Each structure stands twice: as structure tokens, then as C-alpha cells.
Amino acid sequence: MPLSTSNFKRRLRLPRLFFRKPSQLERVHGGPPLEYERPIPEVPWRGITVVVVLIVIAATCAWEVYCRSIGYGPTLNDNEDLWTMARRRVKPESVVIIGDSRAWYDLDLDELEKGLGKRPVQLAMGGSCAYPVLAELANDEDFHGTIICGIVPRLFVAPPGTPPMQNAEKAVRRCHMQTPAQRASQFLAMPLEEHVAFLKQQELNLEELLKRLPIPNRPYAQVPPRLPPYFRTLDRERRARMIEECARPGKLQSTVQQIWLTLFTPPPPPTYIPREEFVKKIGQAIEQRFHDVAAAVQKLRARGGKVVFVRFPHSGELKKLEDRETPRAGIWDRVIKDTGAPGIYYEDYPELSGFNCPEWSHLSAGDSVEFSKRLVPHLRKALQM
Amino acid sequence: MLFNSLTFVVFFAVVVTAYWSVRSWNARKNLLVVASYIFYGAWNPPFAALLFSTTAMDFWLGRQIAKAEGRRSRRAWLVGSVCMNLSMLGFFKYGNFLLQNFQWLLARIGIIYQPPHLDILLPVGISFYTFHSLSYTLDIYRGVLKPTKSLRDFILAVSFFPQLVAGPIVRAGDFLPQLVRPPGLRAGQFLWGLLLMTLGLFEKIVLADTMLSGSADRIFGYAGPLVALDSWLGVMAFAGQIFFDFAGYSTCAIGAALCLGFHLKDNFRFPYAAIGFSDFWRRWHISLSTFLRDYLYIPLGGNQVRPVRAATNLVIVMFLGGLWHGAAWTFVVWGLLHGSYLVIERVVRALFENKEWTNNLATRLFAGFATYAAVCIAWVFFRASDFTIAARMLHGMFGGHAHGDAILSTREMLQIALVTAGMILVHWTLRDSNIETAVMRLPRWIVTTAWALMAYAIIFTQGSSNAFIYFQF
Description:
Structural class of chain B: mainly alpha
CATH topology of the largest domain in chain A: Rossmann fold
Number of domains of chain B: 2
Distance between the termini of chain A: 83 Å
Number of strands of chain B: 0
CATH class of the largest domain in chain A: Alpha Beta
Oligomer: heterodimer
Strand order of the largest sheet of chain A: 2-1-3-6-7
Radius of gyration of chain B: 23 Å
Radius of gyration of chain A: 27 Å
Mean pLDDT of chain B: 90
Helix content of chain B: 55-70%
């Protein structure tokens, strides 16, 4: 430790510039160079750095080993940049899958390619509304291909400003505004994510781990519901597959099931708006969505594009909840009627309705292949191929 | 390119390696110019051309000011430089704002005018590099700087990538002299630079983005009335978020510059330990407050004029400082609030100047607490996107919504409380010192552990490449 302040300052090499005003001469470029130095603490930097690097490597490796030991595997994160990469693959006549996580998990690109003659581009997103992507494709004057649009009624009519709309809007916005730096970061991140298990932006980061702390809340605290834990893999084409552990009965499967029930239960109306007014506003937003969707489909069809709506399998308590809260006659029938587009409701066809969703909302990786194979003839018929 | 992105990690590693591998000083400077333009162009390549054109114009105008003989013609060239810089800033940043206000004014006198919406994309960091460049012509005019003969050196001074997009606002007069002689590679300086970069990223990724931003967004985005506790916690979360976000960027910039052998001044000195508002502005965004002081407040007469005029000067400076932050009346109100705080402080100081009790610990602590609270109240206008939200927040903070909603979880409340308490404790502990002194005084095992923990927390948190708040300014 320093013996005196002056000695301490000397050891720190504190710059004179910080303690006195520089002379006129010193401020003139071309004059004598300034003695302009930030103080550098005199500590054994090399030794400290070596120890820091070793600690960080050891801790990172330990975290990786632990994450793998509790079932996490390396896979890509689904984010706006990966979505943008997929969106860039859309050609004027492409087959494009849009919608929510059911269209994402339940469709196998290989089977669809075999059956439809073109490899589809996967643009469906977990927990998102299909409309912003449908509108974006409808506004893309070059695009006149085919859209397979998954419908989960609650997500399909999600009002503006809600997370399902924001998720989709964020991706669409990124696609139009992506900077070269963001593009480069995605290319650098992918090989890392494909090899490192703990790189799960929406699951294993500090914020998400803090959310899991069992701390009781105030009675009326409005805490957003928990999202399901890791239960899928994702490749560079954005093909999502349920992991085996979730397809088997067990803790992960039941956890995900319970989370779906919470997420699909309508939240209470906000306290700051009278209930009638809120219900009226939501009704208006849903009507507007029907109108907007019909307009977007009309726009696409006018230039030769095709749209087919698909309702994917769901099971168990979640099915009961969905049937109760969003019956077929309410949203599905209205979308089909207003747009005039063909629709495939899985329950109408015995070969599509016999599937069981392990966690009630999505098909297992194996079943998704079989389901896609069986769906192809219906798609071909609906699209008059 | 964001500091908290993988692209930057690779970019920086390549630049640093190449920079220290090259012997020629000219080649190194050329490398930095190219690297800086790549860094900037990685957002939007065409805007690099805009950056170059303003830089080249100011380089030329600086020479004209130096060559001009009469005071009038010197002033005319300076006015040219100021107009060029401010008109560009005005067009890109304030174009739509001015049109909207023009429309509003016409509507007040019964004229309905629908202006075209200008689809203007704001060049990132334009407010910063405009000031970097403007400082050059202003200092030449003031006679404290001779124009550089090298356009390349001036380009580097304006566009040096660590400070290009979000400060600190490095004046040409502080940077150009560092381009005279090549710095040597010193291990201590380089590694201290890396530690500062780690600290800056920790502040941004862990403290601002992970611990505070979610709660601040939730509170300011909530459409209903909130109880006082949640309102205050939301504002405190934002107060911490904006500090860690901006100070984190500045610390990264200082660290990155040190790794390349350059020295940038501090931009923050523990501002939440300020006692009074003049003290706050000596500690918060120092490069902007000194810029406004030297190039606006002092030319207006500073405090060498009658008290009423000095107070008016303060308010004018803070009004413009507010507007610099964004094209919205909420920023203007934020600036005016700070202007009023400064004026009130002057009056209070004049009244109690020689009282002994003003120097005791309790008074100082109370004054520090009052300063923090008043700064938080001003942050409401800075963060709120319109006056309705600001009014709702203030109403909630002062108990106007006794039966309002309580939306924060206990975890969020604990995070805000712990981070804010830690931040204020550190600020008060180091308020008359600096981080270098603290590192010297701490046992080495603590420095090592702290560095390792911060680095690990950054990896652990992963981040999602959120942009720094000050990029939008």
C-alpha cells in the first residue's frame, strides 16, 4: 500500500493534465505532443489476466457440462436474425409456411418437398400471430407463391401490442432493417450455438434463471406467465423438432402441459378499463383482423398467389380449453368464410386426427413426419396442384 | 456494430492484432481509419459517405477560418461550419418534429395543413460525430487549435471507432495531439483497457439490460394507474439503466481506445453521488456538459453577467441540451427541468453560502438524496414517450393512485433495490476518487475475482445485442 498520497499518485502515474489547465501551446496541434495519459493502475496485469482467463474457462466449461447433464443439447436459438435468413430464401414462387409454433413443429420440410415438388421455407414462429407475416408477403409485389398458414385462434386474432403480434412484427421489422453487423453476428453465432449447449438466449440466460427463483409475490402482482422450458431443436432451415425427453411421459412433458394451460387461459381484463369497454375494444380488434386478413389474402390472390389455412392437432386438457374458449365456429369458420381460401381442419379427416400431442400442443418429431406425409394430399387438393 | 455483439469481438481482435503488428505509424493510422469506417458502415453503409462529407467539409472550413484575416471573415467561415453541421443534424434528426410542430401551429390559427411524412432514417450517432467535428472549427476560431495539415488525421479524430457513435464527445483538440507520435504497446495499459471493456460490457449487458431494463419497460409501458411504490421503482430502474447503459458504453470506449494506445477522458464520475445539480452535471455526460459550457454557456456570457441573465443562460443551455437528446417536447421539458434545478440551486447557494451547517455530513447526505430524487423525477420526462405517460407516472409517484395497480414481482423489486443500493454505495464511496485508485487500493485477489466474475457474468447472461440507448441520440 502507498505510504503517502503523493507517492501514491506517482505510482499511479496520474497525469498532470487532469490537475492543471493545459497551456495554450499544449492545446495546439503540431506543437509539442501532450502528455495526455489516463492513469494505469500498477498491478501485475499479466498474472491477473492469466488467472482470470483460467477461471472464466473453467467456469464456462463447468456450466456447459452441467447444462448437458440436465438435458440441454446444443441447438440454434430462434431469433429475428435466423428468421430473416429464412425470409431471404423466399423466391417469387416459393411455398412458405407461416403461423405459430404448431406449423413450426408439425410440418416436415422433406415430406412437403417430396409431395409438393418445392422445398418450403419455414417462417412460422413460436408464440406469434401469423398476420404480420401474411401482410408482409402480401405487400411483397414479387411474391406470388403459396402460403400454408397455421391457425391457433387465440394467437391468430391477438390484438396489436400483445406479445404474439410483437414477436412477429419484430421479425418482419428486422428483415427490412437488418444491418450488415447483425447479419455477420448471426453467421458467427450459428456455429457456436450448434456446439455449445448453454447458449440458449430465451432459456439459460441470467434473466430467465432469476425468474425461476421461488420468491412469493404480492397478491395482485401482475407477473407474466412462464414460457415453456427447452423442448426442441432447431436447424438452419428453422425446422423445429420436439426433443425425445418431451415426447416421453415425464417431468418435462407435464411441466410444458401445465404451462400451456396457463398461457392459453385468457387473462383477466385490465383493472383500469371498464369491462364492457374492454370487451368492445377486443371485439373491434378481432373484426379488424378478419378484415385485414381477407384483404391480404385478396391481394395475394390477385397476382396469382395461393393461401391455405391449416388447423393442426392438439390434445388433452389443452384441446378442451381451446374448444371451450375459441370454438371452431368463432374464428376458424369466419376466417375461411371471409377469405374464401381453402382450409384444412385436422379433425375433419380421420387420417389427420389420430395423432396425440405428447405435451398437448405439438407433435413429436417422428409424428410430424407422418403427419406431413398425410397432409400432403389434402394440401395438393386444396391448392389445386 | 454494437460493442455487445459477436461481430465486434471478432472485429476488435482483428483490428488490434493488425494494428500492433504494423510498424509504420502512418499505416497504423490508415488502418484505424478503414476500421472506423467499417465499424460505422456496418450499420448502414451509405451513412459512411455522409460522415465523410461532413468531416471533409469541416476540415476545409477549418483551414479557411485559420487563413481568413479579418474577424468578420473568420466569423463568416465559422457560421458556415456551424450552419452546415446543424442543418444536417436538423434535417435528419428534427425534420419530422419541425414539420409536426409547424402543422400544429397552423392548426391553432385555423389552417389545416397536412405535411408529407418524411421517411428519414436517422444516421446512428449523428449528434456525437457532428459535435466531434464541430469542436474542430470552433476551437480554430477561438484560437486554441491550429488546423491540422492531414485530412487523414482529422478523419481519424472524428471517426475513431471507440467513440464514434455514442461518445464520449472527444474534441479534435484532445485527440489530434495523440496522432503526432505513435504510442508504444504496454502490457499494463492494454490489459487495463481490456478490464475496462469488461466492466463496460458488464454494466450494459448484466446490470442495464438484465437487471433493470425489463422492469423499467414494464412500468413505463403499463397503460393503467400504478401505486407509488411501483412508480418510484420503475423510475429508479430507469435511472440505473440509463447510467449503466451510457456509462458502460463510455467505459468500453475508453478501454478500447487504451488497447490501441489512445487516451480518452472520463465521461462519468459517479454522478448519483452528486450534491447539487451543478455537481451532477460535472459528473454526468461530462463531455457534453463541458462542450455546452465552453461553446454555448460561456459565449452567452456565462455567470459573468447579471444574475437574471446568468439564470436565463443556464435555462437556454439546458433547453438545447434537452433538445440534443431527441426530437420531442418531453426531452425539452427534461432539459428545462434541469435548467430550473440549476437556477434554484444558485439561489439556495446564495442564501446559505456561509452557513456552517451546510457542510456537515447529514446536510450533505440529505442534499445528495434530494439531488438523486430530483434527477429521478426529471428522468420521467426523458423516458416517457409522451406527456400522458409522464403525467400518469408523476401522479403515481406522488401518491395520486392509492388504489392503482401493483405490477412488479418481488424478484423485480429486489433486483431494482439491490442494484440501485449497490450503485449508490459505490458512487458515494468513490465520489472523490476514481476507479484506478480503487483498483490500486484493493487486494489483488479481489481485482482478479471481480474481473473473472464480470467476464463470466457476460458469457452467462449471453445478451441479445440490445442497442445502447444513446445510439438514438
